[in-house]
Amino acid sequence: MFFRAFILQHEDLSQVIFYALIITSLWLAECLIGAIKPKAKLAHTFLNASFIFTALPLQLLLTIFIILIMNWANANHWGLIYYIPYHSNKWVYYISLFVLLDLGEYVYHVIMHKIDVLWKFHLVHHSDLKVDVSTTVREHPGETCIRTCFLMLWVFLLGPGIVVLMIRQVFQTFFNILAHTEFRLPHKLHMVVGAVFITPNLHHVHHHHELPYTDCNYGDVLSIWDRLFGTYQELSENETHFGIDTHPDPAVNARFVNILKIPFQKLERK
């Protein structure tokens, strides 16, 4: 009871602690058995970790508005969830909202790729030439704002409660970090897990430097949306090359200030 009460009263802190534990554990595993040399990995990690200092304050600030919207929606019984049959049943309530929130993240991700002004912020994440667990936090502060505003919209439209959002955040955090590790799952395990969930094998394809693979495997937690909407692709590890073909210069991609400038420069689509 105390643990549950602490989490509910300190949602932001709980998320940060959980995020830090998962990402640190996987980063250490990469150091021990990964392919990137320790010196290069440290430099790469410090670069990507710099984005935490721009993203975290914005995330914490904007989360206040998510909570306000959620409280209003719950108090007024507002949201799509109230139109779903048997929504008063806990299983129907939690599963429906989890699936709909995941669909919302899929839609958000597709929009970030398809609208040029938004893509310019999102390509900062794709510009990483060495995808590993630290790539998870490589997010331009502009995209942090955009992503959180989309979450506000989904909360307003769907009407989830705080427990649903927290369960969703746990799954999202775990799968996002896992998807960016430099390890791929064994093929047979991937075929089983990837039938439902996004795996590193699938998300690595999304980080391939050329179309059409950049515009595939948009899923956040569930892979069913890519299969349903025709954006599912597979690519072998040997054929996958990270980065983005419009920004291949390591001199740009390895310097924090230069990366922050990318969205404000002329966009070149290939």
Description:
This protein is an all-alpha fold and 270 residues long. Helices cover 63% and strands 0% of the residues. It has one domain. 33% of the residues are buried.
What are the key terms here?
63% helix; 270 residues; globular; mainly alpha
Can you summarize this structure?
With 270 residues, this protein is mainly α. It contains 13 helices and no strands.
The total strand number stands at 0
* SSE order: HHHHHHHHHHHHH
- What would you call the structural class? mainly alpha
The radius of gyration computed from the alpha-carbon positions, rounded to a whole number of angstroms, is 19 Å
What characteristic shape results from the CA principal axes? Answer: globular
Q: What is the count of distinct domains?
A: 1
Question: How many helices?
Answer: 13
Average pLDDT taken over every residue = 88
Approximate helicity band: 55-70%
Largest sheet: none
Residue stretches low in confidence (pLDDT < 50, at least 5 long) are 1-10
Termini distance? 54 Å
Into which percentage range does the β-strand content fall?
A: under 5%
Layout of SSEs?
Layout: H1 2-9, H2 11-33, H3 38-49, H4 52-75, H5 90-114, H6 116-126, H7 141-158, H8 162-179, H9 187-193, H10 200-206, H11 224-229, H12 250-253, H13 256-261
Helix pairs in contact: 2-8, 4-7, 5-6, 5-7, 5-8
